[in-house]
Amino acid sequence: MKVYLDHSATTPVDPEVARAMYECMLHNWGNPSSIHSFGREAKKAMEEAREKVAAAIGADDPAEIIFTSGGTEADNLAIKGVAEANAKRGNHIITSSVEHHAVLDACKYLEKHGFEVTYLPVDEYGMVSVEDVRRAITDRTILISIMHANNEVGTIQPVEEIGRLAREKGIYFHVDAVQTVGKIPVNVKDLNCDLLSISAHKIYGPKGIGCLYVRKGTRILPIQHGGAQERRRRAGTENMPGIVGFGVAIEKAVREMPERAEKERKLRDKIINTVMNTIPHTKLNGHPEKRLPNNANFSFQYIEGESILLMLDMKGIAASSGSACTSGSLEPSHVLLAMGIPHEIAHGSVRFTLGKDNTEEQIDYLLEVLPEIVERLRAMSPLYQKEDQKAR
Ligand SMILES: Cc1ncc(COP(=O)(O)O)c(C=O)c1O
Questions:
Q1: Environment class of residue 346 by beta-carbon count within 10 Å: exposed (0-12), middle (13-18) or buried (19+)?
Q2: Does residue 211 have an active-site annotation?
């Protein structure tokens, strides 16, 4: 049996999305900047997709959507673009220590160019404190960037309150919503945000396309230069098939969200309850309630997450030992370390992220195979044997 449980890394493309993209490539291949009929037709399709994206997140005006090459570019544009445009007002940025590297590394880059960044700590569940945000604000703060939910442990941040605080203080607020769109409600008004990042490949859309929502009136500069596309905010001929596919994917993701989330939550709870009740020396990472409906992240003590992944893979089950971007490196996850989890326990972490097409039968298969794998690896672990003898 093949079981894909890595939907936070990427999702398969929905056939309806693929068909819309195919149609676009074959029959609507014009350049949306051209003034002839081929260009006008392409522009029409692009603007329809923009309207769908804007409607999906409650934006007032489709012109507030800037298409980008994905979540990474949207995060970079938000952070570097706002920093540069507002440098005269201040040079301080607040973010958290559990953000995606697209945010963290953009901030590190700015630190080399005269900006100061506060990386807020998180509690044991990976949660940022609104009080910590309040205390970190100075009269030089121009931007706060906090993710809606964490990609590794699924913890949902108190972004509404942080947004209210930012608005009260006249500070721009950016939310990385790459992991939340289509899973929990995302509305730019409710979140009180000025900027919001989305990526299509997490919602059954294609890779290499996403957007940054920029509230009207937000001062932002482009980070790449060239043509006048996207109202001069993002140069480069638009990824038309990607944009069309993104529009179809986001409309469907938001429409089907209640059923998808309900189904995923049920399967997730089955995984969490069974694993916690049947596999000893196991820790659930992330918040017990305020977490994404599709995320279950565990640390299995005394063994390596990578070994578990390899053995799961041999059984046809795909999971992840951290974010897609950090797997492949042997450094333990910065998110788990920021939550105060010791190195050796962080090393034994595995993330299962469900998707709309997972079935109960697949989860039963996982729950049959996983305890055996953990037991087999622990039987080979000198660390475990030492602990086991001590306990006897
Ligand atoms: C929270 C978060 N932000 C940003 C990204 C980057 O998005 P993309 O893969 O579209 O560049 C990801 C991808 O894993 C993510 O999980």
A1: buried
A2: no
Residue nearest to atom 8 of ligand 1 (CA): 71
Which residue, judged by its Cα, is nearest atom 5 of ligand 1? 71
Q: Does residue 327 register a pLDDT over 70? A: no
Report the length, in residues, of the chain.
392
State percent of the chain over pLDDT 90.
Answer: 94
Question: Ligand 1 centre from 40 Cα, in Å?
Answer: 32
Q: Report the greatest alpha carbon distance in the chain.
A: 81
Give per-residue burial for 170-198: e unless 16+ CB within 10 Å, then b: ebbbbbbbbbbbbbbebebeebbbbbbbb
Render pLDDT for 200-210 as a digit per residue (tens, 0 to 9): 999 999 999 99
Nearest alpha carbon, ligand 1 atom 14:
9
Number of other residues whose CB lies within 10 A of the CB of residue 358:
21
Q: Which of 24, 193, 211, 325 is catalytic?
A: 325
In the chain, the domains with their CATH numbers are: 3-9+257-391 (3.90.1150.10), 15-255 (3.40.640.10)
The predicted model scores a pTM of 0.97
Backbone angles phi, psi at 355, to 5 degrees: -135, 175
Residues with CB under 6 A from ligand 1: 70-72, 75, 100, 102, 147, 151, 176, 178-179, 199, 201, 210, 323-324
Probe target for ligand 1 pocket from 13, 100, 184, 295, with the most ligand atoms within 8 Å of CB? 100
pLDDT at position 385? 83
- Tell me the C-alpha distance between 57 and 60, whole Å: 9
In this model, does residue 165 exceed pLDDT 70?
yes
